[in-house]
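Hello,

Our lab assistant flagged a job as stuck in the queue for most of the afternoon. It eventually completed. Since we weren't sure the result was trustworthy after the delay, we are filing this so someone can double-check. Below is the sequence as submitted and the structure that was eventually returned. Let us know if re-running is recommended.
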Amino acid sequence: MLSRVASCVYWMARYLERAEDVARFVEVNLQLTLDLAGSVHEQWEPLVFTTGDQEEFRSRYGTATQGSVVHFLTYDTTNPNSILSCLRYARENARAIREIIPTPVFEELNKFYWFVRDSGGQQPTEASYELFQQIKRRAQLIVGIEDATMSRGEAWHFAQLGRYLERADKTSRILDVKYYILLPAVQDVGTTLDVVQWSALLKSTGALEMYRKRWGRIASEHVVDFLVLDGDFPRAMRYCLIQAEQSLARVAGGPIGSYRNAAQRRLGQLRAELDFAQVEEIIDRGLHEFIDHFQTRLNGVGGAVHDAFFAVQPLEAVNHFAGRGA
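-- returned structure --
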């Protein structure tokens, strides 16, 4: 597969997943605002911190309010991580590979982009909660069409690789919103407010029902265990790495456990860290510090994927790479 095609498939999936996940962590704050109206101080700036765009936001918007943050993360086309920007990039990548992906995937993605664009200008009210529900459903519809209509070839696995790397990153960021910022007071841990916030976080990741089947009562250590270390739940960080590793092995051309490039080595090392991690160790170390380390390592995996598959390499380097065995 041409590196250009592989890159477009990979980034189409990543941007679509990013749009859905940004909707998820905006939704969790909207839900908390509705559930806890008047009882706690609203916190919107932390959401901008989770995307790493706080300096740009402050220079243009100043004080973080519900309206400014929702607009910045949803409609602002100068913010490359806004939902509308992500959908535009996903659509542009999909347009470049229309002969590779099923026609309904592009059609639904195109309609999705126009749906969000035409909804712009809404004030963040209770109706906004339904908007983000719609964004999640439309993203999941496209993933479902891909799943039902694409052959499990290289294009499929590049899409899976992009989707699961992005999902692992965003699940970690959603966790960071709650633990590091939304509940800064130690004395609030274990209170009713704490339980409500953890429940909202689980609901925003679509994990509340599966969590209750696994653990029952809401407890912070069990939530961290479920969203970080679970190997069966599809939005858990460890599950995402397992799936990404399998797809990376398929496109690299070798069995899982054989490492043909730096991307496979880095991803395998990071997955192994989670395989042997214990939730008590994560909490003792500090969840925010653990997530920060995880995101740095995950960014390294993304960079290595780019170098191995998308970057144009000198002929000598390509020949050297091709000659290396498992």
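-- support follow-up --
The delay was a queue issue, not a problem with the job. The result is valid. The longest helix spans residues 3-35. Residues 315-326 have pLDDT under 50 and may be disordered.
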